[in-house]
Structure formats: structure tokens, C-alpha cells
Design goal:
This protein is an all-alpha fold. Helices cover 61% and strands 0% of the residues. The chain starts with 11 loop residues before the first helix and ends with a helix. 11% of the residues are buried.
Length: 84
């Protein structure tokens, strides 16, 4: 099931980004998913689903946006390793 949502944007947004509306929406979904993943709100799988791309494509997008694949702080990693 999917839901359609209408978002109103000024026409000049597309020209400023050198994009057409369809490409803009794809990029906006991807950028939102990357950010939500970066701040720990969603998993990689859910982010890929939101972005409408495969998980592999999402991982490539993380690299493009300079976002780490790993969302664990050094302290959390140290704690996890200490438990083993």
C-alpha cells in the first residue's frame, strides 16, 4: 500500500537545482532517508524503502552524502566489545 502526498513548491526550485519535478522528488526522498538514517531515526533497510532504492543503492548514497555506514558511537562500540 502506498499513500500519495502533494507538496507545493515554487517553480524556480526545479531550475535552481537543475532538475525536473520527478527527479527532484526522488532526490528529496533520498536526502530525507539519508538524514533520518544519519540521526538514528531509521534503519538502513527502512531508509532504502523510504528512498525507493535498493539497500545497495542506499549505501552508495551514504557515501555520496559523506554519511557513515555505521551509526554507532566509539563509546557504544567500546562497550559492545567489552561485553564479549
Amino acid at each position: 500500500m502506498s499513500i500519495n502526498i502533494n507538496v507545493e513548491l515554487p517553480n524556480d526550485v526545479f531550475s535552481a537545482l537543475r532538475s525536473n519535478p520527478e527527479t527532484f522528488v526522488k532526490e528529496m526522498r533520498l536526502a530525507a532517508a539519508v538524514k533520518w538514517y544519519e540521526v538514528g531515526m531509521i534503519s538502513q533497510s527502512k531508509a532504502a524503502e523510504i528512498a525507493g532504492v535498493s539497500r545497495h543503492q542506499f549505501l552508495e548514497a551514504l557515501d555520496k552524502y559523506n554519511v557513515s555506514l555505521f551509526q554507532v558511537t566509539p563509546e557504544e562500540l567500546a562497550e559492545e566489545l567489552a561485553r564479549e
